[in-house]
Amino acid sequence: MALDMGVFCKSTLDGDAVDHCFSALFGLGQNADPSYLDWLMKAWGWTLAVAGLGLAIALVLGAVMGTLRTLPNAGRSSRVLIRLSTAWVELFRNIPILVQVFLWYHVIPAFVLPLKALPSYWLVSIALGFFTSARIAEQVRAGIQSLPTGQNAAAIALGLTTAQSYRYVILPMALRIIIPPLTSESMNLIKNSSVAFAVSVPELTLFAMQAQEETSHGVEIYLAVTALYALTAFAVNRVMAAIEKRSRIPGFIASTNDAGAH
Amino acid sequence: MKKTRSIGISVISVISVLIFSAAPSLFSVGVLAASPTMDKIKSSGSVTMGVRESSIPMSYTTGDSRFDGYHVEICRMILGDIKDKLGLSTLRINYQPVTSQNRVPLVQNGTVDIECGTTTNNTARAKDVSFANTLYVEEVRIAVKANSGITSISQLNGKKVATTTGTTSVQLLRKHEKANGVSFDEVYGKDHADSFLLLESGRADAFVMDGSILAGNIANSKNPKEYKIVGEVLSTEPIAIMVRKDDPEFQAAVNAAIAKIVANGNMPKLWDKWFLKPIPPKGIIVGLELSPATKNAWANPNNRPAEDYQQKK
Hints:
Helix content of chain A: 55-70%
Number of helices of chain A: 9
CATH class of chain A: Mainly Alpha
Number of helices of chain B: 12
Distance between the termini of chain B: 80 Å
Order of helices and strands of chain B: HHEEEEHEHEHEEEHEHEHEHHHH
Strand content of chain A: under 5%
Low-confidence stretches of chain A: none
Order of helices and strands of chain A: HHHHHHHHH
Strand content of chain B: 15-25%
Number of strands of chain B: 12
Number of domains of chain A: 1
Radius of gyration of chain A: 23 Å
Mean pLDDT of chain B: 85
CATH topology of chain A: MetI-like fold
Number of strands of chain A: 0
Mean pLDDT of chain A: 88
Largest sheet of chain B: 9 strands, mixed
Structural class of chain B: alpha/beta
Structural class of chain A: mainly alpha
Shape of chain A: elongated
Oligomer: heterodimer
Shape of chain B: globular
Largest sheet of chain A: none
Helix content of chain B: 40-55%
């Protein structure tokens, strides 16, 4: 079948071709009559916003929860923290992501009223961030536990407190080790952000469903959306590979080969 | 040597037999003047009707893979008429649930012979399929909470307006925003039930959608008195029964059957049954009055696309 990419230069109002098809691409001029390309770019922006915010939440919470799960089992407070972080991980990775999104959007705001004032993309980002944080926490824990026990013992022998040994010895090594699985997780988050369409965030998936109905050019629309998802995920991959390369320390376990791609 | 050659020849002859026997059946659909759909119905003694799962009261399931509704009942009448025309003693009707996404491809590829759902007849779809004469004209309206005080689209300025992803109402709202200089905050439900939930939970102040869908959702809600349908008609769209393209004979047979149903004075009774009286399975009442546009379609049989309706206004 023939592809008609001209569909992206059509107006979203009346389906006629517009003058400035590429107006939104570089922020040059604003079409009074936006084209489907303008809308596609806007939808991409929403995908990036939801995924970016979700990733920030996931990385921070994942690192914290993963670290807490590996605390030495001594003293009451650390036992409480271990239980809390274990409960966190089990709660958020045992519920399907779409269900979590609905919980955050429809159920939780019914009980916690201030959440109703939050825009829906915040709620989706929280849902995505918490879901992914459980997975990242497990990777952080795996990274920490893969270190030889001598590392921790040496840190304590030097007189460092538990917090200091994590800060200066354990985490700097563990986080380097887990960059490859973190890359996959970050790329997953981009793709998982497509569930945001279900709670009315006008991102790429919602655009695809709506625009293919309006234009009857489903193949072209889905091709463009697929390309943007793939491009975004690949960009994340490249950024993570660069971080991996830059943060490498010769002689450490994580720096034995120079393969950058995952 | 001789043996291998004979095998080679027989392989070629088998292939050529396959090609030539396949060719007529591949091309006959377009070439022969006779109606492929009628032939299929006659030879198989069965027909496949495309139906919707939850388009109350047009076409929906009543449980246990049984389907019913305004369009479904009309289609059963049409198929009864076609059965008589073909001289069949029995005609088995297979029900095939379809969705907004797959209904056109399923009619095109022959899986579904006649689609009796809630398909808008528009020029884009008319390139792929044909439509029977319109028996129901949909009016896009606004549903609000009864205590909201909203009575017109102009009062929606700055308000949150819900509609369903993948429907023509989204585009319609954009056009209205542009034309009337109002600006809404659009929220999208992933299906009609979801959009209604947005209205119910207060995440949206209004739900803009086809009148029958609004009425059906309100009738189905916990407290139907809390909602009402208000405001001007935002758009009129003919909803029609869909048949395969390039089969004018079948289309004509369907239209003839429709003309018979209309002439017998059945349409007001059908409207009463599906839109004003309690309907199975739960006995809800949709409560949608017959619109002048639908009445007009019954009186003047036509299959004009939605674009014609817009120009007329």
